[in-house]
Design a protein that fits this description.
By secondary structure, the protein is an alpha+beta fold. The chain is built from four helices and 13 strands. The strands form three sheets. Strands 1, 6, 7, 8, 9 and 10 form a six-stranded antiparallel sheet that branches. A five-stranded antiparallel sheet has the order 4-5-11-3-12. The longest helix has 102 residues. The N terminus is likely disordered.
Length: 380
């Protein structure tokens, strides 16, 4: 309450006014008024404190409101950023997925190509992997005897053959192959690249190129010819139990007059009409060189095929291709009226001369018409 303001009616503040003595208030009245004034001062002080508290609360609320607004703005920014990143991530994932699909398609194509190459290699293996019956004459070196078993030496025959296929090369029209004794000569001619060759009626500019050979195969064939086992085939089919047929085979090949001996076991297969006879001792050598043998069974006479049992396996199988370092390929040979042999002789004369960078020629092949195949063998 402002004490400097003019006095107001006490009746308006909830007090009743009493008529006082004009001479002035009494002492009691003054004390009462002082007490009333102190009360109002206390009330005012409390109201001021309450107002200050309310102002502080308002300031705090305003600060919290500002913080909330900032947090809300940050949250919105974060949401927008997340949305943009989500869109970008989705686009990135879609691009990555597209790239992966393309890579997957490429890998599938590569797998198909590898399958085709594998099928081609298998086909070539089956074509080149056959061994002819005729084997070139060779020297055999004795190494050692196997350990003896049951008082008898191992009568198995162990053979190792080194097999290498001839490597084919397709020679087209107006091309020639020259094989030199010295590898350096071939490599020198390849570096020179172009060569001017006199072919009687005209001068030809020939190109010398290296060439890649097709696939070749080499391996070791290990063959073991059993000294105790023989294979029997073309056994007649009879309406008797399998055990009876095994017994008849054992009795037949037990007889020495048939080239046999004491039988250890008989494995008989009725479906294939074959049997494997295992002797107790190495008696199978008696059947080496024999292909047919008489067989008597149930009063019938027939001839069965007999041959030693063999085991075969491959080792050190290698599939290879490369460049023949001693051979060159001539390209660009022009067509002439001379016959093929004459042109070949003129080419050979030119490349034998050291002045032309040549040397001694082991072999030469020139094709003037059509296509031919040249075959290369591994140097031994």
């Amino acid at each position: 309450m402002d004490l400097t303001s003019p006095p107001c009616s006490l009746q308006d503040n909830g007090f009743s006014r009493e008529t006082t003595d004009p001479s002035g208030p009494s002492t009691d009245e003054m004390e009462s008024l002082k007490e009333e004034l102190e009360k109002w001062k206390g009330r005012l002080e409390k109201a001021e404190k309450a107002k200050a508290v309310l102002l502080l609360c308002k300031l705090s609320a305003d600060e919290e409101h500002v913080k909330a607004q900032d947090e809300l703005a940050k949250l919105k920014d974060f949401q927008e950023k997340q949305h943009k990143e989500g869109v970008m991530s989705r686009e990135s994932y879609e691009i990555e997925l597209s790239l992966l699909n393309q890579e997957n398609t490429g890998l599938k194509r590569e797998i198909e190509k590898l399958k085709e190459d594998l099928a081609t290699n298998k086909s070539m293996l089956s074509r080149f992997g056959q061994i002819k019956k005729k084997v070139a004459e060779m020297n055999m070196k004795f190494l050692h005897m196997e350990d003896m078993k049951d008082g008898y030496p191992d009568m198995n025959t162990h053979c190792v053959f080194h097999v290498a296929t001839k490597i084919p090369f397709k020679l087209d029209k107006n091309q020639a192959l020259l094989a030199f004794e010295d590898e350096e000569v071939a490599q020198r001619l390849i570096k020179m690249d172009k060569h001017t060759v006199n072919l009687d009626s005209k001068t030809a500019n020939l190109r010398v190129k290296p060439f890649t050979l097709e696939m070749g195969i080499k391996f070791e064939l290990h063959v073991t010819i059993s000294g105790k086992k023989i294979n029997v085939s073309e056994i007649p089919e009879l309406s008797i139990p399998d055990d009876w047929m095994r017994d008849k085979l054992e009795l037949h090949f037990h007889k020495s007059e048939h080239g046999g001996g004491e039988v250890e076991s008989v494995e008989y297969d009725k479906r294939s009409k074959t049997a494997v006879i295992t002797f107790l001792r190495p008696e199978a050598s008696g059947f080496v060189g024999r292909t047919r043998c008489p067989f008597f069974v149930n009063g019938r006479f027939c001839m069965v095929s007999v041959f030693p049992s063999t085991e075969k396996h491959l080792e050190k199988l290698q599939i290879c291709s490369g460049i023949s370092k001693k051979t060159i390929l001539l390209k660009g040979i022009p067509e002439t009226e001379d016959d093929e042999e004459s042109v070949q002789d003129m080419i050979e004369i030119h490349f034998q001369k050291p002045s032309n960078g040549g040397g001694e020629i082991e072999n030469i092949k020139y094709v003037s018409k059509g296509v031919t195949w040249a075959y290369f063998e591994e140097d031994t």
